[in-house]
Amino acid sequence: MLTTNDVAKVFDTILSTPGMNEMVKIDLKISRKNVLLLNHVIERGLSSKEDDESLSLLGSIPEESLQELKVVADECLQKAGLIELSEKLNTLGDGK
Q1: Of 12, 51, 86, 89, which one is least surrounded by beta carbons within 10 A?
Q2: How far apart are CA 10 and CA 8, in angstroms?
Q3: How many Å apart are CA 7 and CA 16, to the nearest integer?
Q4: 8 with 61: CB under 8 angstroms?
């Protein structure tokens, strides 16, 4: 059985293989509902606590890669016209 540290090393190795920094174009057609859900999942994953053992792989990912992922999530919201709705939903969630 692999430890969390071993899994992080394997993941880091995969991310550093040749060609992983090359840009790819993805033609993606998904519903607005799924764009909103995808954005929420990305934001939740990026904002989760670092000490959460299930998400400890994020600790080995460079900060710039995490920021790029956040930009992708925001671009998806923008293209779907859901920025304002997402912001309002986030303010509802903040009241918990």
Answers
A1: 51
A2: 5
A3: 14
A4: no
Distances (CA, A) of 17 to 8, 13, 20, 64: 14, 6, 6, 17
75: tokens are 């671009």
CA 29 from centroid of its chain's CA atoms: 18
Q: What is the mean pLDDT of the chain?
A: 85
Query: Under 8 Å CB-to-CB from 50, ≥6 apart: which residues?
Result: 56, 58, 59
| Per-residue pLDDT tens over the stretch 30-55 | 999 999 999 999 988 888 755 555 55
- The conformation of residue 44, written as its DSSP 8-state character, comes to H
Q: Which long-range contacts link 10-17 to residues 24+ away (Cβ below 8 Å)?
A: 11/57, 11/60, 12/60, 15/61, 15/65
